[in-house]
Design goal:
Strand content: under 5%
Helix content: over 70%
Distance between the termini: 51 Å
Order of helices and strands: HHHHHHEE
Number of domains: 1
Strand order of the largest sheet: 1-2
Number of helices: 6
Low-confidence stretches: none
Shape: globular
Mean pLDDT: 92
Oligomer: single chain
Number of strands: 2
């Protein structure tokens, strides 16, 4: 990949960071702003559980992936692998940091929670960039990555309405899970 192509991909991934952070921050409030509309809740945080905060990274990252597909796909040969892996790394980063620091402090700290979101977005976009600028993985990895992304989308919607009764899905202040409780 040429230096010009790498710079172009880097620019897209950097713009993606800003896009995901801004849209994800807005999605934190859209469910409430909609008056509790379940359709909006499928794509927004419906409570303050860790799981619901993962949607704030996932949906904006997926949308940006669709936006950048055409221009970035032209300069890379592993878009179908790199972008889903970047999204997965971003959403995995949030619970790792959250549960690590709350295990130490014993409490959730608002500033750290916001910073965790931003760090997760940066991890996802940098990971995407690194993978986008490397040689193409096997075709089977491309297919598996896309299937994983589709499954995640289905799971995020499904678990908004029917979450497992696990701590990651529980809003600690109310003890409720998902949108239907």
């Amino acid at each position: 990949m040429s230096g010009t192509a790498k710079r172009s991909v880097f620019t897209y991934e950097s713009v993606g960071m800003v896009f995901i952070i801004i849209l994800g921050s807005l999605l934190h409030f859209t469910f409430e702003w909609s008056g509790g509309n379940p359709a909006v809740g499928a794509f927004s945080a419906v409570n303050e559980s860790v799981w619901e905060h993962l949607k704030l990274v996932f949906w904006p990252a997926l949308l940006f992936m669709l936006i950048e597909y055409s221009p970035v796909k032209k300069t890379t040969n592993n878009f179908a692998f790199a972008k889903p892996i970047g999204v997965c790394l971003a959403i995995i980063t949030i619970p790792i940091i959250f549960y690590s620091y709350t295990a130490i402090t014993g409490e959730s700290i608002f500033f750290i929670d916001i910073s965790t979101f931003v760090v997760a977005v940066i991890v996802g976009q940098i990971s995407s960039y690194r993978l986008l600028t490397h040689k193409k993985p096997s075709e089977s990895l491309n297919k598996v990555s896309l299937v994983l992304l589709i499954l995640l989308a289905v799971v995020f919607i499904l678990f908004t309405f029917y979450p497992p009764q696990l701590p990651i899905f529980r809003y600690s202040s109310t003890g409720k899970y998902g949108i239907l409780q």
